Amino acid sequence: MKNVTDSFVSLGRWPSAGSFGFNTDILATNPINLSVVLGVLIFFGKGVLNDLLDNRKQRILSTIRNSEELRRGAIEQLERARARLRKVEMEADEYRMNGYSEIEREKANLINATSDNLEQLENYKNETLHFEQQRAINQVRQQVFQQALQGALGTLNSCLNSELHFRTINANIGILGAMEEITD
């Protein structure tokens, strides 16, 4: 610390301007050099520094304005997107409800169509059964008729002699002849 105070004291004892030399005392020369450099920088650099700070301030303000505009645009886009989302959600709900009602309607139509088909199949089954019963009845009738006819012919053939047979044939021929005259 003594060196620092000695250097300031020695400032008062500098020799006159006739001599020139280097001061090798670093502690004595650094504060003087620093104060001179700082004084020059402040005097000449104040305008440049002000200009740099003003430019920086303008760029920051411009960036803030742009950010605000972008924020407003983003908010508007967000609101439009939310409105579009609400609209799409309402349409989806509407489609969902219409879809459910359409499904229910199709289900009812399918049930009705299936019921109608079953009813038709039941009717076809009943008609087929009735037809088959009638056919079976007719076959039985034909068989009974044929058996009765064969039995009658057998009885007639065993009971009739040739003359009775001849008279029956002539009578039937006469009946057929009379039927021909009526139809003509």
What are the key terms here?
mainly alpha; 90% helix; membrane; transport; transmembrane helix; thylakoid; proton-transporting ATP synthase activity, rotational mechanism
Instruction: Return Rg in Å.
Output: 67 Å
- Broad shape: rod-shaped
- The amount of beta strand, in percent, is under 5%
Mean pLDDT: 82
- How many runs of DSSP E, i.e. beta strands? 0
Helical residues, percent: over 70%
Q: Summarize the biggest pleated sheet.
A: none
The N- and C-terminal alpha carbons lie at a distance of 170 Å
What is the H/E order?
HHH
The structure class reads: mainly alpha
Contiguous helical run count: 3
| Low-confidence sequence ranges | none
Give a structural overview.
Belongs to the ATPase B chain family. It is a single-pass membrane protein. It comes from Behnia reticulata. InterPro entries: ATP_synth_b/b'su_bac/chlpt (IPR002146). The chain crosses the membrane at residues 32-49. With 184 residues, the protein is mostly helical. The chain has a domain at 34-138. The protein is 90% helix and 0% strand. It has 3 helices and no strands. It has helices spanning 2-11, 26-159, 162-183. The longest helix has 134 residues, at 26-159. The chain is rod-shaped, with a radius of gyration of 67 Å.
